[in-house]
Each structure stands twice: as C-alpha cells, then as structure tokens.
Amino acid sequence: MRRFIMLSASFFLCALVTFGQTNFYEQVSQLWLSGQKTNVLGIAEQRLQQNSNDIAGLILKMEYQIEFCNLGDVTNTMQNVLTAGSEITTTHFVALFPSVTGSVHHLLTMIPIYPTNELAADQAKGSITNKPLSYGNAIKALQDDGYFQ
Amino acid sequence: MPSSRLLTRGMDGREKVLAMNTNETYAIEKQAAIPVCYESAAAAWDSALNYSGTPSNYYGKIYENVGWVRGTKSTDGEWGAYLWVLQNKIVFQTSTSYWWAITNNLTVAITNVYVGSLGIYGPMESNVVDIGPEIPTNFPGEDLSDTGTYRVDITNIYYQLVIPAIWITPRDVVVAVGNTNAIRFTVTGTNLINGATWTLEPNGLSGGATMQSNCWYSRDVYPGNIATSYTIRATSLDNSNFYDEVNLRVLKIDIEQIETNVSWTATSVALNLTVDSYLGNGTANWGSTPSGISGNGTDITFNPSSHTPTTYIVRAQSSLLTNCFDTCTVTVLKVESIEASSPVADNSPNTFEGQKSWPFDVTKSPTADEHLVVFYKDAIDSSFNVQDFDVTLKANILPTEISADQFNEIWSKISGPSSGSLNKTDTFEIKYQNPKQGGVYRFDFDLGLSGCSNSEANVVLPLAGAEVDIIVQADIERANTFATTVVARYTWLQRQNPINGLRWFVQEGAGDYLGRPDNESMPTVWVYNQVNISSSFGMGAVGTWKGKPVRIAKISNFIAGYGVRKIGVCSVAAWISQIYGTWNDSAASKSWDAGWDVGGGASYNTTVIALVADVWDEADDKNQKLWPNSAAADNYVTPDSFSDPDHEFTSPGFLYMTNP
Fold first, then answer.
1. What CATH class is the domain B333-461?
2. Tell me: the pLDDT tens digits for B488-534?
3. In Å, how far is B567's CA from the nearest CA of chain A?
4. Where are the domains of chain A?
5. B38: which of A52, B79, B156, B244 fits an S-S bond (Cβ 3.0–4.6 Å)?
6. Residue ranges of the domains in chain B?
7. Dihedral class, residue B67 (left if φ above 0, else alpha if ψ from -120 to 50, else beta)
8. How far apart are alpha carbons B49 and B83 in whole angstroms?
9. For chain A, which residues lie within 8 Å of any Cβ of chain B, measuring from their own Cβ?
C-alpha cells in the first residue's frame, strides 16, 4: 500500500510539474489539507529545479518551512519570495502581493523572538491535517493569471 | 261692507203686496169741457184746460184703462176745444217694515221699494198718493185731436235689499308669541242693530290669548304666550246665525338648540324647533351669519365638514312674520393640530394634523412616521444622568376663541415607557414631564365632543439596539474555545502571521458582529439606527452594551482583541493586526485594547463599563442620539443562519469556527 501511494505521488508530482495545469491551486490545497505536505514540498522543489525563481515553488516551499518550523531555512526562502514576487506583473498576483509582502516582513521580525520552549511542540503541529495553506490565495492568484498553463 | 245690493221679488216664494189705503183710493173722472166761439184754437184750448168743473170720483175703483181725450175744432170761423180725463188716485204704504226676512230667519234691510208702474220709493213710506195719468197741457194744434190710454201696474212690487253682511277686521292676524300689544278687532255689517257678541276659541288657555271688551263692535285681543291658532267670532245679537270669524295666529319660533358645539368631522348635524313652536300655515326659514347654514321647515341638517370652523349665529324666522324668529349659536369645532415641542427636541415644534390617528411604526425608514424626537445626547449631563425636561403638547382648536372651560377634554398617554407624567389632563395645553427612559411615547387628545375624533401625537426618545452584554459574555467563552483550538493546531509563528489573522478575524465577517440587536417589547427605531444591507452587509447598527449605546463595530473590536490575545499573538503583532486592513479609529482601538486587556485577565465588567462610557464621548452622532435600551436582545442567531440584518443579530464567525 505504501509503495502504491509513493508511486502515485511520484506520478502526480511529475504531472503537476511537467504539464500545464488549470487546477494547480486546488490540487496542492487538497494535498496540504490531507496532510501530504511533503508532496507539496516535492512539487515546489521540482519547480525550483526547473526555475530557481519560480514564485509558486518559492511560496510553497516557504509554506512548508513555516509549517514545520524550519527557521534556519525559511528566512532565505522568504527573501527569495520577496525578490521573485516583485518581478511578477500579472494582475491578480500584483493585487495580492502586498499582503504577502506584509506578512513575510512581519514574520521576519517575529522569527528572532520565537519562543524556543515552544519549538518542539510546534514542529509536531506540522503533521496536523485539515489546515489550509496560509498563502493559498497567492497560488490561486497565479493560477487566475494563467501562470500554470 | 258689501258693495252691491240684492233686488228681490219673491225669491223666497213670497209675493210683495202693496199695502193700499182703500179709503183714499178711487178713480177720478173729469167731465168734458167744450168751450166754443173763440177766435182762435189756442184760446179755446186754454179755456178747456182752465175749466174747473166738479169731477166724478169712483171710490174703491182702480181702472186699468184710464187716460184722456182732447182736441180743437173750427166751426164757421170760430173755434172750440174739448178735454175728457179719467185718472186713478192710489194711496198706499210702500212696505210694512224696514226688514225682510230671508233664510235662517235672517232679516235684511229694505232700501227701496219698486212699485210697478208707479215708481221707486223708500221703505215704510205711508200715504203715498199717486194720481195719474197726468193731463197733457200743451196745445194740441188747430183742428187736431189725440187720446191717451194708460194701464196702471201695482202688482210687480220689488224690494231692493241690502245684501246681508257681517265683517270683522282685521281679517287674519299673525303675531309672535309674547306680543304685549293688543289687536283690536272691529265688526261691521248689516243686521247689527242691537250689536254683537264676541267669542275667542280656544278660550281659557293658561297664558293664552285673552279678549277685552271695548264696545259692542270691537274687542281687544292680547296674544299671550301660547302659540296656536285662535278663532275670533262676532255674532249678531239679532240673529245667532249671523256671524263672522277671523283667525289670530300666534306664532312661536323656538330653536331646540341654544348653544351647540359640533365637530368639523361630523357628517350631519340637525337643528330643530321645539315641539311648542308654531308656524301657522307658514314655515321657518333658516339662515346663518356667517352664511352657510340654511334650510326651511321645522328642522334642518347640515354637514359641518363643508363649513369653515367658526361660530355661526343661526336664525330661524317665520315666513309669515319677520319679527318672529329665534337664534342659536352653532360652533363648528376643529382640532386643527396637536403641536408638540420641547427645548431639548431636535425638530421642535412638530405639528400633527388633528382629529386623526398618528401610528408610529419603528421599522419605517428612511421616512419615519410623524414624531417629535428628543435625542439622548441632548437630554443627559456629562455623567449620563437624564435631566428633567418637558414636552409641551398643545391642541390648536378652531375657532381660536373657544375656551377649554367649555369642554371635558382629556389628554392621555396611549403607550410608551412608564416614565414621566402629564402635569394635567384637562386643558388644551399640557406638559409631559421628565421622561427618563427611551421609547416611543404616544399621546391622545379627546376634546370630549360627540362625533369629534381624537387627535394624537408621538414623542420619540429613540432607543438604541437591545442590550448585548449577555451575548458578549457568552462569546467570551466561545472565544476561549476557539483560542484553545488554534493554539493546539498552529505554531507560534503561524499565529503571528497577519495572513492567518485576516482569515480568522476579518475575512467574510469572521470578526464582526452583524445585524441589529433588538427586543420585540422595546424595539429600536430604524430611522435612527439603520444597518447596512448592501455594502458592508450587516454593519452600522448601534446596540446597548453595559447600559450604554455603542456601535456594534466597537464590540467587534473588543472581541477580536480578546481573541487575538487568547491565541498568543504577541503585542507587537497584535498592534500590526489592527492596522492591517481598515484603520481603527480611537474608539475602535480602545475597544480592541479593552478586549486585549480582558484577554490578559482584566475584569470583564470593570473594563467594559469603563470602556462604553469612555467611547461614548467620542462616538459619532448616530451613536449619541440613541437612548440606552435595557431589554436584552431577543433576535440573536448563529452566524451560519444569519441573513437579515434588519431583523437579526449575530456574533463574529470565528467564534463558531470548528476547524480554524
């Protein structure tokens, strides 16, 4: 059963990265809600392998790193999101990006004061299912702009 | 007096017979005189005329063919003449009485007696002597002769009579009741030789007409005070069947109503004469000053609503007698308006059209029913104490000279809070004093006049939405549950993320109280407490929180501040969360801070009581106009069933999130 799932996931990832998608947002949201967050990270990394400035890949990677309290890497990813995002000029994303920027800037100020005594417990919360993507709206905006076609 | 006379002969079957004096009645024959040998015919004729021979009298004889024979004749140059005469001498009395009895033993006077061929004589002429025919004395001519033959008529006797009459004047008298002047009736006519007797019918009425004697031919009648028709009769003393009658009509016009007040809204009002009024054969003509009320007869009706409200002097006058009338006063009354005023009212004075109902529907907005409004902010001091104030209610009544003393007017409160009181109820202008509670006060004015519909006025101290304190306290518990869930599922960093904050506390009304808290028994007034039903759906209402009117949005700020703190957002992040999106005003920040403080352990009651007093001072005009509503909201629904902001009230959606 586990092998079957992994094969299915690999196929799914390949399909998501390789072909144009009109429901990219819905598919990654569903993966996230169902707890397949590693697969979402896999999708992000595959997109970044093809384009290290792929804004969708960067946002999903940042989402994963926040979810699992990967504080060592998330700061860099956040900076990349701010840089790559500012290059996007499509309508929907441009409209939404200020909220992403505000959020990221705010979290960058919060990370240094993260209460370390909560870190272990918080890392365990990453496996909790049925939580929506915090930045799902940004992925949705990219989809609405035809970014995944 | 009659102007003609009756000539009668045997009209009653009785022949008139001449009363003859047979001893003196006889025929007279004068012998013929024949003088001759005169030189002329004229001389011979004069001689014949002058002949005075002894006549032959035939007593007791009256011949039918009396007359004469005469002539002249010439013989041998000389002239002769002749004359022969036969006459009747009739001696008689024209009548044996001055009177002639006709029907019903009524005697009438004889003015003349027509005696056949003899001539016209007066009545009761005795020893009338008639000798005829007369001998013609003129010269007949030479050698001429002629004769005369006459037939006497003493059988066709006629009496010329006075037409019998009796006549009272004046004939038909009409006077007004109470007339103190006597009316003098005088009788004239025939057959009144011995005078007349007088009667008055009906007679002996208490206070009625009385008759006083002057002389036999006249009477003075005093009309008295009883209105009726009297018959006055004068009867000849000579014959009781010979009388005349005239009428005396004593009229009375007495209007039943003396001073009548009628309502302008009445459709029909009747005026009538009293039963003891008497119009004779006439009628009563009604009119008024000013004009407008009119008619004729014993009663009239009119429609006051078509008349100008004023006092009318109504006059009913006999059609037969101009000085017989009565007047009454009819006042057409109209409660023109009720004027409500107060020095603290926002729209003082406010005028309500009179004699109609003025219901007040709290849901009418933006055009409200008619009312005088007193806002909370204008009635309180800096410590929220409602100051004493009066609302003056004045009934404006037409005509303006009408006095309250004339009516049993009553003011009353139809509905409204049990607060304040009327200083009096029985005059046209009263005061409602010192209401302390918000609500809709409705007042009624009853003029106390039959048919006059009541008037109304509304004084509105607009209530804010109902008290939500119980709901907010329940929401504190819901917020605690929400926070526990969020803390268990999200990392510290995720809870600081404004993106998540937006999702939990802002987006899709997740952080807003929506709708308008209300209570069926103590409803808010929509026109002063509108809620958005299009953009900003469900926002904008003012409710009551801990006894103070407050914008619902401020309660949203409070509960959001509470929830944010409860999920462990650090203060810096919390502050940023406030400005993320719409900038909070000062009152909103204070509300947020109060929620933050309570979330951190501060006393809910102490904090909120201080908060609502504090933010009221800087609240907007809408907030400050509305009066505190002590009734708890009874229109609460959960967020998932909320759809009607006008009728429902709900909590922020985050409080009901099961999977935040």
1. mainly beta
2. 999 999 999 999 988 998 887 788 999 999 999 999 999 999 999 88
3. 14
4. 2-144
5. B79
6. 5-162, 166-251, 333-461, 469-656
7. left
8. 7
9. 66-67, 69, 71, 99-100, 102-103, 106-107, 109-111, 113-115, 118, 122-123, 125-126, 128, 130-132, 134-135, 137
